[in-house]
């Protein structure tokens, strides 16, 4: 678990602080809001393309192999991004950085191989809690690094974290796939072929729901710094504090999922998501309406915390409701939906800001996306229904 934990922190710092790094990057290279959206979207396009293949490889070759390949690719891509000076090079580097992270699907496979059913929500939520840690540590440290070494230095520091994670995975992570093959246990046949996995009702509904909740998450994570700088006139130092406080909400949300959902709402996740989606939508609207920065920060904190709880709760559903032989493939499909949310979010922001000239419509879109998430989760079959199928 500690090995996966470090890699997850590196992945999330890379994804979440790009919004902070983009502020000085855009100033130095004179990038428009549309050009910044291309950089953000490129990462998630690459990310989306590789989730299903990585999920399949996890089931066939094991999670350790995929983790090594993933970390190797994103390390090289980060170094290239930190060295780039043109928009095309930046977009290409982020695209290949997106191809790298097979981490979520590989970690889900490792959790399934390592933990019994009743502990999988706890284990997966602990891993996802790294998004909260990254949301606090990253925004607080990255501006300091940028001040000392520039935005390129900040990118190279993140690349160094990937190198450390790669070394630990190679050195310390057990090869559970190899151990299973060498054991005397009978070989488990896949519960269903690939086409049945991608058309499974649970997988399809989670695909759509994860896309919509990630529109919420990545709009908040990547565009809050730009909104605060451009429309509110907030300094980079203050932005880092606001984003870090919102990150605390992400951390509490992840741990809250591990404790509250894992302990009190096993198999009743839909009720939790319904309530959290309503709170997320309401707090998103109040972020923009708040005149005080302190009040804005509170609603941003609440919005981020509840949306992360929704994400964490949904991400555990394939681990608990699908046959373990297809968990890697199914998680890859679901995570493709999640990454498509990261693709659409920058496009939505650029179009809405271009059309209305401010971010009010953006926060309305966040609220709508939260409610769409809730709508599709309602139709996921209950646990008893799935067990009878």
UniProtKB/TrEMBL annotation:
<feature type="transmembrane region" description="Helical">
    <location>
        <begin position="272"/>
        <end position="290"/>
    </location>
</feature>
<feature type="transmembrane region" description="Helical">
    <location>
        <begin position="68"/>
        <end position="93"/>
    </location>
</feature>
<feature type="transmembrane region" description="Helical">
    <location>
        <begin position="329"/>
        <end position="353"/>
    </location>
</feature>
<feature type="transmembrane region" description="Helical">
    <location>
        <begin position="194"/>
        <end position="221"/>
    </location>
</feature>
<dbReference type="Pfam" id="PF07690">
    <property type="entry name" value="MFS_1"/>
</dbReference>
<keyword id="KW-0472">Membrane</keyword>
<dbReference type="InterPro" id="IPR036259">
    <property type="entry name" value="MFS_trans_sf"/>
</dbReference>
<keyword id="KW-0813">Transport</keyword>
<feature type="transmembrane region" description="Helical">
    <location>
        <begin position="6"/>
        <end position="26"/>
    </location>
</feature>
<keyword id="KW-0812">Transmembrane</keyword>
<protein>
    <recommendedName>
        <fullName>Major facilitator superfamily (MFS) profile domain-containing protein</fullName>
    </recommendedName>
</protein>
<feature type="transmembrane region" description="Helical">
    <location>
        <begin position="233"/>
        <end position="260"/>
    </location>
</feature>
<keyword id="KW-1133">Transmembrane helix</keyword>
<feature type="transmembrane region" description="Helical">
    <location>
        <begin position="126"/>
        <end position="147"/>
    </location>
</feature>
<feature type="domain" description="Major facilitator superfamily (MFS) profile">
    <location>
        <begin position="1"/>
        <end position="385"/>
    </location>
</feature>
<dbReference type="InterPro" id="IPR050382">
    <property type="entry name" value="MFS_Na/Anion_cotransporter"/>
</dbReference>
<dbReference type="InterPro" id="IPR011701">
    <property type="entry name" value="MFS"/>
</dbReference>
<feature type="transmembrane region" description="Helical">
    <location>
        <begin position="38"/>
        <end position="56"/>
    </location>
</feature>
<feature type="transmembrane region" description="Helical">
    <location>
        <begin position="359"/>
        <end position="380"/>
    </location>
</feature>
<feature type="transmembrane region" description="Helical">
    <location>
        <begin position="296"/>
        <end position="317"/>
    </location>
</feature>
<dbReference type="InterPro" id="IPR020846">
    <property type="entry name" value="MFS_dom"/>
</dbReference>
<feature type="transmembrane region" description="Helical">
    <location>
        <begin position="153"/>
        <end position="173"/>
    </location>
</feature>
């Amino acid at each position: 678990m500690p090995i996966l934990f470090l890699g997850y922190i590196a992945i999330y710092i890379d994804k979440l602080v790009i919004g902070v790094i983009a502020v000085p990057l855009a100033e130095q290279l004179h990038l428009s809001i549309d050009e910044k959206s291309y950089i953000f979207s490129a990462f998630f396009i690459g990310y989306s393309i590789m989730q299903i293949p990585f999920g399949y490889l996890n089931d066939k070759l094991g999670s350790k192999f995929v983790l090594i390949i993933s970390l190797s690719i994103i390390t090289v891509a980060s170094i290239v991004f930190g060295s780039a000076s043109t928009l095309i090079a930046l977009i290409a580097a982020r695209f290949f950085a997106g191809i790298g992270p097979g981490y979520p699907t590989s970690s889900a496979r490792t959790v399934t191989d390592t933990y019994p059913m009743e502990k999988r929500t706890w284990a997966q939520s602990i891993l996802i809690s790294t998004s909260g840690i990254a949301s606090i540590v990253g925004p607080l440290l990255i501006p300091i690094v940028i001040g000392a070494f520039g935005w390129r230095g900040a990118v190279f520091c993140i690349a160094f974290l990937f190198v450390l994670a790669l070394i630990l995975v190679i050195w310390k992570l057990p090869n559970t796939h190899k151990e299973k093959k060498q054991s005397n246990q009978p070989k488990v046949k896949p519960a269903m072929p690939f086409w049945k996995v991608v058309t499974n009702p649970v997988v399809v509904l989670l695909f759509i729901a994860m896309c919509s909740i990630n529109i919420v998450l990545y709009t908040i994570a990547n565009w809050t710094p730009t909104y605060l700088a451009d429309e509110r006139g907030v300094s980079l130092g203050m932005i880092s504090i606001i984003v870090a406080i919102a990150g605390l909400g992400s951390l509490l949300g992840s741990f809250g999922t591990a404790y509250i959902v894992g302990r009190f709402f096993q198999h009743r996740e839909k009720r939790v998501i319904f309530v959290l989606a309503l709170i997320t939508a309401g707090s998103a609207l109040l972020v923009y309406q708040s005149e005080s920065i302190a009040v804005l920060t509170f609603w941003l904190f609440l919005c981020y915390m509840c949306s992360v709880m929704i994400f964490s709760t949904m991400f555990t559903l394939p681990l608990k409701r699908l046959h373990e032989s297809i968990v890697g493939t199914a998680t890859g499909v679901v995570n493709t939906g999640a990454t498509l949310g990261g693709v659409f979010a920058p496009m939505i922001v650029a179009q809405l800001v271009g059309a209305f000239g401010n971010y009010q419509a953006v926060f309305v879109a966040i609220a709508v996306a939260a409610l769409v998430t809730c709508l599709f989760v309602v139709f996921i079959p209950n646990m008893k229904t799935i067990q009878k199928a």
